[in-house]
Amino acid sequence: VSGLTIHYSFDHSYPDQFYPSATGPVIVPKDAISSIIRLFGHLDVIAFVDETSLTISTEILDYSTNLISGKFPAWQRIVPQSFTQKFTINKDKFATLVKEASLFDSQITVKIKDQKILIKDFDGNTEVEDTVSDSNIDMNFHVNAKNILDFISSYSDDDITIGFNHSNLPFVLIADASYFDNYTNKIYQAI
Questions:
Q1: Residues pairing with 139 in the sheet
Q2: Residue of 77 and 10 predicted with greater confidence
Q3: Cβ contact 85:78 at 8 Å
Q4: For an engineered disulfide with 101, which of 6, 17, 68, 119 has Cβ 3.0 to 4.6 Å away?
Q5: Angle at CA of residue 157, ends 154 and 163, nearest 5°
């Protein structure tokens, strides 16, 4: 979340009492992240983290969620650090295509090649196609449509970018084009 300041406190009633030794990643549920983005957008917020919960606060609103206990996964070993192909598409156009293709089955195949995007469900019942402007792209991947639609609904940007290497490796959906300039500081979702 842009502008998020995190202050670690073990007691919400004393937010001025910070413990610098309480550092490290926390695991926040995906639904909570979507809610925080929708509720707070680009507002300046303060986050209070304790051992079991996260509270996001503004002058007029507080939002709390439980943290997921456990060790934070080593996402850097799974999520690619660079991509052989990057493809940008209008978010609303992509959402419409994904929704139409997933009417009967949420598991879909996305194929981008020869200036066309083809999305179909696994059973072959539904297939949608549209043209795209980039002629150098050759992507083919399988995904649950719900994951793509959740990502798209969480961001207000007009376009999304797909970072892709190979069909048997994770791909990344990026809502902020400047993501590639500063990889570690942007919000992304690996599928």
A1: 112
A2: 77
A3: no
A4: 119
A5: 85
